[in-house]
Amino acid sequence: MSTQIFRNLRVENAEHLSDITVTDGVITAITPAGPVAGSAASPAGTGSRDGAGSPAPVSGTPVSGTTAQPSHAPAATVRDFGGRLALPPIVESHVHLDTTMTEGDPHPNESGTLFEGIEIWSQRKAKLTVEDVKERAMRAIRQQVRFGIQYIRSHVDINDPNLTALRALLELREELRDRVTLQLVAFPQEGIESYPHGRELLRTAAELGVDAIGAIPHYEFTREYSVSSLNYAVGLAQEFNLLMDVHCDEIDDGASRGLETLATRAYEAGIGEKVTASHTTAMHSYNNAYFIRLLRLLKMSGINFVSNPMVNTHLQGRTDTYPKRRGVTRVKELTEAGINVSFGQDDIVDPWNPLGTGSLRDVTLIGLYVTQMMGASQIDHSYRFITHNGARTLHLPDYGIKVGNPANFIVLGAQSWREALAFHAPVLASYRRGELLFESTEPERAWHL
């Protein structure tokens, strides 16, 4: 039996500090911070702060010591974090690992539009190999882990007769199973009804073992195809007992109404908590009378939403002169209605986003600005868009810093989420079942003003 004690952590912005006890990879106690016998650690809350508002550095070396326990019990390994912020692991609700690191190949997306990106990817897709996909995906995943991510939902283009990208990421999912949770969505980038053998490819993906079924109703040739594609996707997800995540109405067209069909099917089937509508950017073009009517259905259905504020701000509104639309779904209104919304990166250095680091801190910061959610409470609770809300979207069990859950958590170089946002605090440590997945040290700073 191995025991670890993580001292002086501010769990999810709590006013008080806590000690977390982990036994064999499971959280067995969360108690008010207190002294550890035999430890030279500083008292709780005494960490100094530098001129940039960041906490003073913490030693990366565990401090040996024991808690008040029977003399026959083995010594616990102790690490003191001096008042740093502890959060559940970051959840990436929406990314495309098959397309990552392909920007400029075969040529850049000069128009910056969604549709040119699809054309470029269609050309790049012809060159895919299993090795190519896995190598690029692993580069992106290492970046994501660096930023505290342990759970990743990746959409994978299945409009490929060979399903090369899907086979590659299915392999990678198994290879990473003990370190990173990778959920795969069968994503028909060029349509289900509008792509040759689209239905058959989607069914094959389900048979191969994806975690979720996708669709792209706004890209289908006709409104009839849009509805038919959603009906087929919902039926397939139910047949294989899979989650759903639909690229839904990712367009500036206010007449794009795939969302009402998806929500209705989810409501009728009673599967709302397993269904996600991603993007829904047409919602920024809906008139308020229609949105108010739609909102009733959305609440009844219980479906989840994913917004990708960074990439959609870049892609949408491209045909506008002025006034120019922001291109992000109605995050504030959905959240206030009690509907689950999480944030995703979407793309990392690919035809739809030439930049992107994998940091959901950046996505959250931009999301707060473009959705005008800058109230004090909105800022302080915004970490939930990339933690608890994302966990609900991915249907994750045993998530959160709770007694009885696996010891999965991250520690940031800040004493609050607001400070982490404002000063881009690094992830100091990421623990998976009590074992280090990633760690870094805070940089030393010197000013010569």
From TrEMBL:
Ranges of Low complexity composition bias in the record: 36-47
Annotated region (Disordered), positions in chain: 36-74
InterPro entries associated with the record: Amidohydro_3, Metal-dep_hydrolase_composite, Metal_Hydrolase, Metallo-hydrolase_Enzymes
Annotated ranges, domain Amidohydrolase: 78-435
Annotated CDD domains: Bact_CD
One Pfam family matching this protein: Amidohydro_3
Composition bias, Polar residues: 61-70
NCBIfam families in alphabetical order: PRK09230.1
Protein name: Cytosine deaminase
Species annotation: Actinotignum timonense
Gene: codA
